[in-house]
Amino acid sequence: MYFTIRSVVPDMFAEGHDMLAIPFSTVNTLILVASSVTCQLGVFKAEHFKPVRTGGLLQIGKWGMVEWYYLSFFLGAIFVSGQVFEYATLFSEGVALNSNAYGSIFYLTTGFHGLHVIGGLIAFLLVIGRTYGAKKFGHREATFAVCVSYYWHFVDVVWVGLFGIIYLLPFVS
Predict the structure, then answer these.
(1) Rounded distance, CA 121 to CA 72, Å?
(2) pTM for this structure?
(3) Are 113 and 87 in contact, with CB atoms under 8 Å apart?
(4) How far apart are the first and last CA of the chain?
(5) Residue 140 — very low, low, confident or very high, per pLDDT cuts 50/70/90?
(6) N or C end of the chain: which has fewer CB within 10 A?
(7) What is the residue range of 85's domain?
């Protein structure tokens, strides 16, 4: 849909793209990518059966999976908040889901991605809750944490692709 609108109605496409806050979205994307890094650091701890920190809160080297997953959750929540802020800004400038084809495609693609990010945030909370609820952090809990990381990394990779197509590709041609 995106490429069709771009080729069939280039003026509408250019007008919609010009309204995007690319520097803001770039920072928001970097926050989401950073959440993938912190998630993977949590996976390393889960694989070594270190669910919680063994030192003080400021001793990052002694964090466990839970602390890294809390940080991943926080960064993911910042990303979603950034998307909401971007939507509100675009809506105030007249770009809405029903304003034209560009608005429809933009909100549908980024909105569905945002819903998947929210699903990942819920999964982080489930992993953390399951960790606290387990009598002993074992293979099942570690496997659950790793599976959630697969989902999170996939959501991040999909966003990097969407970001490239929606925000950066128009500069290439």
Answers:
(1) 8
(2) 0.93
(3) no
(4) 18
(5) very high
(6) C
(7) 2-172
